[in-house]
Amino acid sequence: MKSKITYAIDYKGQPADKTKTGGWLPAATILIVEVCERFATLGIGANLVTYATGILHLPNATAANIVTNTSGLSFLLALFGGFIADTFLGRYWTLSIAALTETLGVAILTISTAMPSLYPPSCKNGSTCIEANGLQLGVLQVALYVMAVGMGGLKSCVSGFGTDQFDENDEKEKSYMAYFFSRFYFVISIGTFLGVTVEIYIQDYVSFTWGYGICCLVLSLGLIIFWSRTRTYRYKKCTGSPLVQILQVLVAASKKRKLITPSIDTLYDDTIEAARIHHTDQLRITQNTDILCYFAYSWFDKAAIIDKDDYEINDSVIRNSWKLCSLTKVEEVKMVVRLIPIWASTIFFWTIHAQLITFSVVQASSMERSIGAFQIPGGSFNAFFIFGILVSSSFYDRVIIPSMKRWKGKHGFTHLQRIAIGLVFSIVGMVIATFAEIKRIDVAKSKGENLTTLPISCFILLPQFFLVGVGEAFIYSGQLDFFITRAPKGMKSMSTALFLSTIGSGFFVSSFLVTIVKQVTGTQNGTAWLTRNINYGKLYYFYALLAILSTINFIFFVLCAIWYVKTMKNDVQIENIVSSFEEEEKYAIEIEGTRTATAKEDRE
To answer: What are phi and psi for residue 79, nearest 5 degrees?
Structure first.
């Protein structure tokens, strides 16, 4: 009986037998499906703007918005995917359906490139370029949004299902979990690198039909391999989504909004004492509670008021979580709400990131990209972005952490410090991108703006790709660390999904800015910032605007971080709550790289 695991079940619904289920081999199978997914999505996404402008003849700004909108949606749908997995289907079925859905989306995209009626005629040899019509553009968007739905489901489940294969109470399997995460990071890096190099090369120099068809084939192969191990996986029963708890508190508080909050001692709390969170003034900045914050949090407290309608005939309390919530659940929701300022101040980094797969690719495609007889595809420049992530992550793990531990006794920078460092690198990256674009435009004006390939090396773009990549290595690990360790223990998946939503929101902010800039500056050559042919535009102004807005956002983040740190110092209760996660943080330190690994997978 010792081989049975009570927390997990097998495919028949029985307690999982440790000797027959889970472990490294099933987890490795999940790695395979993930590397196939990374290869396909990055291979398509990093070069999608080239397809939209070169084959469908869409304006650069329109193509950029298509890319950012679909990418942003995939991250926001991770919230929905997590809800479905936690509440109804479980991770295995959610992952299976999501992977199948994404494969269907890629198949539709492949068909759209193979049928001449679904893309406009070529405009080579001096013929007029005809922009894709409504049907052609509609088929593209259907394919991309179907893919986005699948990607959202995968992002919410794949890493969690991988960790489900290990028993954290078993020291041997616990060490295997650390190995799994380190291999996870390595494998998805390989998948990403192959996607932005080999896959994009096939798209640019063979055909998009072959490129997308290979992506569809790879996804199908990964899904078949994933299904082949169904009998050996460990599964966890659905326990409910934290989203439901948040909705319950909001609904219950709304129903009792007219009631006057009584003394704290009379608020309802049926949580066992060991897990109970006592009432706190969680937004206190000084010794005097901010009035607006006080009333906002008093409103949440109303969800724990026992009203006359909450009693049954025998005077026992009706256990209806949509009408009455325990004080502990209310406090957990408050803790999540306290994360919102940091959440809001980190969105803009991902707006910067969105430029690397849109306008920066267009820039690279207009420049000299040859190395001998080999020509680098424009979309493959994201490999330098990935290189920045890998180099900075390795440097941080191997140099910064040991040095700080030796000299200051600290295990590297705090999560808020890492976020700040990432924001600074993104600002520097955009400043350098501005000057690089000015240099490119000067060459275009002197040599001829109609040139397809300008006589200027594409390698002047490397700093912007590399620096933003370095920034992402810091901000991603910092964000994930912050949201996981500062959220209630029962809402870890919810806090991770909240973090992922910053990425999706950043992509949508990019689309919003592009739309506003187009409306303000117009589309006429000479005055417009974003034109169909970037040689006639003023993209450097757009990059400069992003650098300025990013600087403002950095100041906003610093203020939010100072506020957050002060509330943590002033509120003893919150410090006690956070201290309950000390053992988890120690374990996270022992397997340094775990958060970066999961973050890398989630980002892509």
So the answer is: -60, -45
Question: For the chain, how many structural domains are there in total?
Answer: 2
Q: Indicate the pLDDT class of residue 563, thresholds 50, 70 and 90.
A: confident
Spatial distance between the Cα atoms of 95 and 515, rounded to a whole number of angstroms: 34
3-class DSSP assignment, residue 235: strand
Positive or negative, the Cα torsion across 435, 440, 446, 449?
A: negative
The CATH number linked to 533 is 1.20.1250.20
Is 220 within a domain? yes
SS3 258: coil
Residue 262's CB is within 10 A of a number of other CB atoms, namely: 12
Q: How many residues does the chain have?
A: 604
Biggest CA-to-CA distance, the chain: 89
The pLDDT tens digits for 165-205 are: 888 777 777 767 766 665 666 677 788 889 999 999 999 99
Does the pLDDT value for residue 101 go beyond 50? Answer: yes
Verify that 420 and 531 share a domain, yes or no.
yes
DSSP annotation of 381: G
Reported as a single tens digit per residue, the pLDDT across 422-465 is 999 999 999 999 999 999 999 998 888 778 888 999 899 999 99
Query: Which of 209, 240, 271 is the last residue in one of the domains?
Result: 240
Do 347 and 217 belong together in one domain?
no
Domain boundary among 240, 268, 288: 240
Asked whether residue 113 is assigned to any structural domain, the reply reads yes
Residue 447 CA to residue 365 CA, distance in Å, equals 17
Does 283 map to a domain? no
DSSP H helices, 400-538, are: 401-407, 415-447, 462-485, 492-521
Q: Which residues contact 90 (CB under 8 A, 6 or more apart)?
A: 235, 236, 237, 238
Owning domain of residue 539:
341-368+377-604
Residue 237 half-sphere exposure, CB side, CA atoms within 13 Å? 11
Q: Distance (Å, rounded) from C-alpha 594 to C-alpha 308?
A: 49
Q: Identify whether 291 is part of a domain.
A: no
Which residues face 371 on adjacent strands?
374
Amino acid type, 192: T
Q: Are 224 and 346 found together in one domain?
A: no
Question: What CA–CA distance (Å, rounded) separates 92 from 8?
Answer: 13
pLDDT at 584: 42
| 95 has pLDDT over 70 | yes
pLDDT at res. 279: 67
**Residues 218 and 348 occupy one common structural domain:** no
Q: Distance (Å, rounded) from C-alpha 142 to C-alpha 125?
A: 31
Name residue 596's amino acid.
T
Check residue 490 and give its pLDDT. Answer: 62
Beta-sheet pairing, 367-368 with 454-457? parallel
**Residue 554: count of CB within 10 angstroms of its CB:** 19
The torsion angles phi and psi of 549, rounded to 5 degrees, stand at -65, -35
| CA angle, residues 392, 395, 399, in degrees to nearest 5 | 150
- Alpha-carbon distance of 166 to 173, in angstroms, equals 6
Backbone angles phi, psi at 370, to 5 degrees: -85, 140
Angstrom distance (rounded) from CA 147 to CA 106: 7
Nearest to 213 by CA among 115, 72, 70, 75: 115
